[in-house]
Design a protein that fits this description.
about 20% strand, 7 strands, seven-stranded mixed beta sheet
């Protein structure tokens, strides 16, 4: 068995252990919907800053699309079902995404590094809290290289992940911005710190949801990075 498949199998086992805490990410929780709305606002700001105005014309692939929640958000923002696609390692999550998303949205199962996708076929490759679940450095780099190959010149990788280790969860590790730059050395990185640290968010939201916004004004309490990693356009 190759190193690549060893790490993919390990990710499957790690996610199986997380099933008991999935309820912590329900949109019925006030800290969760505030996190999602904050990320959406920051993401739209990135799109505007980088001239991505006609979302309906853009082709986007999400690596690690889970049950399809992020892709549904993107469809509501203006992306077209036939122009977005997802890749998901876990069969049960892939099945949930298929039951949720429009039929025109293509979904791929299995290890994303093994997908036979055309080079430079995507305007955006989106990855959200995936690399923090990959504990093998070589596998991280391999996935980053594959994603970068799929991005057309002038497009980019849309990145969202946390930057600090979680001492209560040994199945994940933070991905600092310096590591993001290592993974995509040819990219131009425009990054924003977002997302109030989830343990703090859960505590303050129990008192009142508005406290999420108040505490999130302190940059040191934000644990995630949202970044646009631009692939340079070809010279004319």
């Amino acid at each position: 068995m190759t190193q690549r498949h060893d790490e993919a199998d390990a990710v499957t086992q790690r996610y199986a252990r997380r099933a008991a805490v999935d309820s912590r990410y329900s949109l019925l929780r006030p800290e969760v919907w505030q996190t999602v709305q904050e990320r959406q606002r920051a993401m739209l700001g990135l799109f505007v800053r980088h001239g991505l105005a006609d979302l309906a014309s853009l082709r986007l692939l999400e690596v690690g699309c889970g049950s399809g929640g992020n892709l549904l958000e993107l469809l509501r923002l203006g992306f077209r079902p036939e122009h977005v696609a997802g890749a998901e390692l876990l069969p049960e999550r892939l099945a949930a995404a298929r039951a949720t998303l429009p039929a025109a949205t293509v979904l791929h199962g299995g290890d994303a590094t093994a997908l036979a996708l055309e080079a430079q076929s995507q305007d955006i490759v989106f990855v959200s809290t995936v690399f923090s679940s990959l504990l093998d450095d070589a596998f991280q780099q391999r996935l980053a290289e594959v994603m970068w190959r799929w991005v057309r010149p002038g497009g980019g990788v849309l990145w969202y992940d946390f930057t600090v280790d979680n001492p209560a969860n040994r199945d994940v590790r933070g991905v600092p911005l310096a590591r993001v730059r290592q993974l995509f050395p040819q990219g131009r990185v425009d990054a924003r710190r977002v997302t109030l640290a989830p343990p703090i968010a859960r505590r303050v939201a129990r008192v009142h949801p508005s406290l999420y916004t108040l505490f999130n004004t302190v940059p040191a309490l934000r644990t995630h990075v949202l970044a646009w990693i631009a692939k340079p356009d070809l010279p004319r």
